[in-house]
Amino acid sequence: MPKYDILAIGGGTAGLVTAAGAAGLGARAALVEAHRLGGECLWTGCVPSKALLAAARAAHDARRAAALGVDVTGVTPHAERIFDWIRDAQRRIEPHDSPERFRGLGVDVIEGTARFHSAHEVEVDGRRVEARHIVIATGTRPAVPPIPGLADVPVLTNENLFTLDRIPGRLLVLGAGVVGLEMAQAFARLGSSVEVIEATGHVLPREEPELVERLTTVLVAEGVSFSLDTRIDRARREGENIVLGSGDREFRGDALLVATGRTANVEALELERAGVGLRDGNVAVDARLRTAVPHIWGAGDVIGGLRFTHVADHEARTVLRNALFPLASRVRYDVVPWVIFTDPELAHVGLTEREARERHGDDVRVWTRPFDDVDRAIADGQAEGMVKLITTASGRLLGGHVLGHGAGSLIAEVALAMRHGLGAKAIATTIHAYPTYPEAIKQAAESWYRSRLTGVTKSLVRWLVRR
Ligand SMILES: Cc1cc2nc3c(=O)[nH]c(=O)nc-3n(C[C@H](O)[C@H](O)[C@H](O)COP(=O)(O)OP(=O)(O)OC[C@H]3O[C@@H](n4cnc5c(N)ncnc54)[C@H](O)[C@@H]3O)c2cc1C
Fold first, then answer.
1. In angstroms, what is the span from residue 39 Cα to ligand 1's centroid?
2. What is the mean pLDDT of residues 40-53?
3. CB of 188 within 8 A of CB of 223?
4. Can you list the positions of beta strands (E) in 64-138?
């Protein structure tokens, strides 16, 4: 009999949730981690990036305080102390993901790099581990594009960015995706001059274009430059400078952040020994997160799709249900919220307007509420942004998009409503406290509600009032 019921490979969010969940349900669980428990989110992703953004926001808020009548002088970001702040945040969160905690929960934590020996056995540094179910949760690493000369220049990625000991003077950012934009704003606020270079013509291509346009306007006003439709074809080092070339244009910086996408960590696993296949470089799974081998599963960034911590968590829970219980549970990707943690934040759930029109045609209705119509946002001096709700004519919510202060928190209400089939009416008829930001969501939903007041309803009301 195999020693374990479940073996998770990879100690990031997906592996940790799998192993802790399995042990909590009474299964014999093991977790293999090659480097450090906590994975990308704790060490090189969410936590350090949000701590860096918090330091950058502090500098920005101090500078803009004058607009609210408060003069703050001498705003000086200290690189060493900012990076200490980041490490401190990680140190405080680390115990949640520590090997001791997981051993205490009943998980066997095995340190080392896993590779398949067979479909039921994994080898970790020469030791064989057998399990009934194996969950591949090995995450991703930065994909660095094959640009001639790039291998000879010092490149920053999310893996080494947070161990810097200085704020770059001139930062080049390759890629206008989520990581590129968050870090561009953070370093611009900390004093770097920042140039974002993007091969396509789009910033954040998955997001609502009008909200992206408002966001890029804010970033440009804060000093971030954008070069779109610019495919870098060469790189070289010139003394302290990094030079990137695109045709006859050249960009110079003293640091280069590459944020051009991710590659799944699959090579070390020797998947062919187990019969597990790949799709577009990611571990191929079906809607129940099962690979081609019935007892081998995939969860988290390694399976591609929406690469977020909360999605990795949700997928791990789905794998647990499917592996341990006679249930067939699928992940619903249609109501997944996500947030770009720029300031203002940009939050997204469900369909964009374009996607909604492709699927629902003329039945689509769009309701917006700019933040400069929201009392709390005006009073706080945070009036940049907009809520955009997408519904059917009958008020079914198809998507929600918020650019604005606290958008990441605001989107939860829309996600809750969508997940549980509550329409715009439920939001519009719920009392929201005044003055708060969620009123922006309510006011957008109320626009739908008012649209239901047809001529017939209005005539009826007139008749009732005057009778
Ligand atoms: C800069 C940045 C900021 C981000 N910010 C956010 C955010 O704000 N919110 C959000 O939701 N998401 C954010 N993300 C994405 C988030 O970090 C990932 O979605 C999440 O960490 C994925 O978890 P995972 O468990 O799938 O993989 P990972 O966390 O990558 O874990 C995989 C683990 O597997 C280990 N491993 C790999 N191969 C082997 C092997 N052969 N044997 C043993 N162990 C192995 C690795 O060492 C690693 O610890 C951010 C990402 C980046 C890069």
1. 5
2. 98
3. yes
4. 107-111, 114-116, 121-124, 127-136
Name the pLDDT band for 49 (thresholds 50, 70, 90): very high
The Cβ of residue 419 has, within 10 Å, a number of other Cβ atoms equal to: 16
* Overall average pLDDT of the 36-43 stretch: 97
Going by C-alpha positions, the residue among 176, 347, 163, 146 that lies closest to residue 263 is 146
- 225-247 confidence digits (pLDDT tens): 999 999 999 999 999 999 999 99
Pocket test for ligand 1, best of 44, 46, 296 (most atoms within 8 A of CB): 46
State the pLDDT at residue 1: 64
CB burial string 180-199: b at 16+ within 10 A, e below: bbbbbbbbbbbbbbbbbbbb
Q: Please, what is the angle between helix 46-64 and helix 79-93, to 10°?
A: 130
Residue among 24, 30, 88, 23 at smallest CA distance from 54 = 88
Q: Which atom of ligand 1 is nearest to the CA of 140?
A: 30
CB count within 10 Å of CB 310 equals: 15
Contact criterion met (CB below 8 Å) for 340 and 346: yes
Higher pLDDT, 464 or 35: 35
Q: If you average pLDDT over every residue of the chain, what do you get?
A: 96
Residue minimizing CA distance to atom 8 of ligand 1: 46
Side-chain-facing half-sphere of 86: CA atoms under 13 Å = 26
Ligand 1, CB cutoff 6 Å, lining residues: 9-15, 32-35, 39-41, 45-46, 49-50, 113-114, 137-140, 158, 179, 265, 268-269, 300-302, 307-310, 312, 341
Look up the pTM and report it: 0.96
